[in-house]
Task: structure prediction
Amino acid sequence: MIEVDGLNAGYGKLHILYDVDFRVGDNEMVTVLGPNGSGKSTLLKTIMGLTTIYSGRILFDGKDITKLRPDEKAKIGIAYLPQVGSVFTNLSVRENMIMAGLTVGKDEFNDRLEYSLSMFPFLKGCLDRKVKTLSGGERQMLAMAMALMRKPKILMFDEPTGNLAPKIAMDVFNKIIELKDQLGIAILLVEQNVKRALEISDRAYLLVSGRIVFEGESKELLNHPELGKMYLGLKR
Amino acid sequence: MFESMGWLLDIIVFFAVYLIVTLALNLQYGYTGIPNFGLALSVAVGAYTTGALAGRIGMWLCGIRDLDYIMYNAMITSMINNAIKVDPMKGLIIFTLTILTVIVVCAFIGFIASYPAIRLKADYLMMVLIAMAEAARIIGLNYTPLVGGTTWVSVPNIFIWIGDFASQFTIILTLIISILIFVFMQFIVSSPFGRLIKSIRENELTAECIGKDVVNVKIKIMMLGSAIAGIGGSLWSFYLGTVLAAAYTRTDWTFWPWLMAMIGGIGNNIGALVGVAAVIFIRRLIIYYKYSIEAYIPFSVVWLEQLLLGVALILVMIFRPQGLIPEKPKKIKRK
Amino acid sequence: MLPPALLKDAIVYANLLLMLTIGFTLTYLIAKIPNFAHGEFAGIGIYVSFTVVQIWKMNPYIAVPLAFIVSAIIGVIIYNGVLRTLKKFGGTLISLTISTLAMQIIISALINVYADYLYPIAGAYSRLFMFRHIDFEFMGQPGVLIVSSLLVFTLIIVLHLILTKTKFGISLRAVVEDSDLASVLGVNVEFACTISWALTGGLAGMAGALLPLWFQGHPYTGSMLLTSVFAASILGGISSIYGAMLGGYLIGLSEVFGTYFLAQTFGSQITAYRMLIPLIILCIVLLLAPRGLTGVIEDLQAKRISKKIVRMGG
Result:
């Protein structure tokens, strides 16, 4: 569904990604792993159009979307949940859902809202509360509910469990699996929790210093003897 | 021959005064990263202090009493000038005392103007400083005992004892002082204090973390820059021989220096020198060819200059924000 | 009791200042920089008014929507022509701010050029004028008092409704908080910014068009108002449009009443120092409560919540 060819990208003059080739199929869960600063977040941001692309292409269902604006990419079914700033804390829950459903027609909006809230029932009770009163885990769930409003074809998560307590992190992971299974969407997961990410995903990429050093089945990487060394960039 | 000499000397004094003011700006913004859009405040206060004080010191030295300084200003000034003709020492005293007072007053003004906002974002500081510069002008225009309000006051001619070349001497003195200030600036920026202010410009948070009292340093820089700009305003007044409150506009004494600093290259005293020279030269050309220019454009040259100023600022920022002479990183000596 | 003329002065001035302050705070929230050219939008409005009255010999109130359009266009030009170009070339926040100053110089010069140009055509002095005498009266009150008050009242309500009940308004608040996230969710951020700048310019332009109906208009009126706008924006709290409304009115009233009372005590020459009032208020607010009244209210609310938590044993 998403295909990235020879991508070189960065921020302004700061070159981060080097010749990245990358693929996520329909209804696949792909995880991107790597040490801090390796460019994982940049990869997601680049697919979304928030960085500077020096060369390469991004294809979505076969169409070249490299030059689209982020809001145009949102409209065609790519949902991006950033690591920080995934919800609007100064707006209420309902207003966040309205923002999430911007690209949805008026009639469909109420249906989608029902549907999102059914996957995250606790939100029904705090629709008019300002998001800054919600906890970290609740905000993450809200972000996912927002993502669902657009009936996305692919969900891209940037370290969704980053600041969360282990139990809440488990809830979030389970929810991600649930979304994939129940809704049949593709998931691209950037994670620091290597073991868990490899356990729940189908395929994995290892990104080190902006380059892909491994691509394969998650189970294969999980049991790979050299995983630690590759992660630290000591072995290709 | 003397006519073109006159033109040249005119440019020199413009250059010297604007160099002083631009160096002050460069210290504050170029090196320390504090954007000062109220530069005219310091220049104006320097000029107003000179206008208000020089003559009054003269009065005191010459024993002139019972005359209102503002109302009888012309008469008082010529009395003082006559006294200086006979006793040049009086001129020297007037000059020295005035300049010293200007330094103290402007440093104080620099403190007051920056204090409310120096801990806050640069945006707030910019707003306060611009407003203060306007306020200074309004006070100067309306508080008549200061510099005569909407009329002007005259400043004693400290070199009048030289005779015909008094003006030239004033210009040379101004140039010498500007060179001294340039040397002083170079000294400051290559000292440990200079490194400190540059580190504040680059990353305030880091500077604070290593224990430097950033706010304290910034206030000192504002005070120092203000004092220096004030000297510029004072020298300008001595050269002109008058202080007209309305003349210390933000266009003339904030925005033009900013263009000079940006064109020359911020964070770089040599850049300031180049920028001042370039802009002064172009401005003098425009004034010189004023009548030919006005034949082509349907409005006054004054507005043309302002339009050019605004457009130049934008163009410099888009195309060459580092200026003509970019700041070079210091080479670290290898051991 | 206060003389009625003073009250009218205060209300008209506060109305106009409120319109200016809302726009200033809006662009600060959207662009994250203070727009130092903001006063010139009003200056443009003032001269649209002069053109309408002295050149076209029409009713001054026609200038109001006209000024809205002209100033809105200038606002859009500033955003799309200058700011976006600068950003493309890697402009920092400081250089964007400097560019608004450059725009102030340019627009101010153009206003002066225009004023000079109009003088011979209009046969009336274009560098200082007032249209109070040609204003209409309704129930004994000057037209501008009624019109400006109605305008402000409508503006506040409409703005509140837009910001809380429409998709566009909510998107705007979203862009203010996090423009990347808004973009990712499908908001055309550039379009939202363009509309904001148009709105800012337009509101200021309208204020400028109404101004000569009560106060003197001259080429520098716009830039002279800027200090009061700063003070109003910061007093209200630069992070809030509602703060701008409150700040605008408070500063407007304090300026007029303050000048009046000072003149009673110190004599009428004190009125020349009028702009010192907003300046002093600005300094005091920055020293004591830089986040303005909005900040003070937020702090009080936070204290209330934390007290509740403590009492709950949390």
Summary: Chain B has one domain: 6-248.
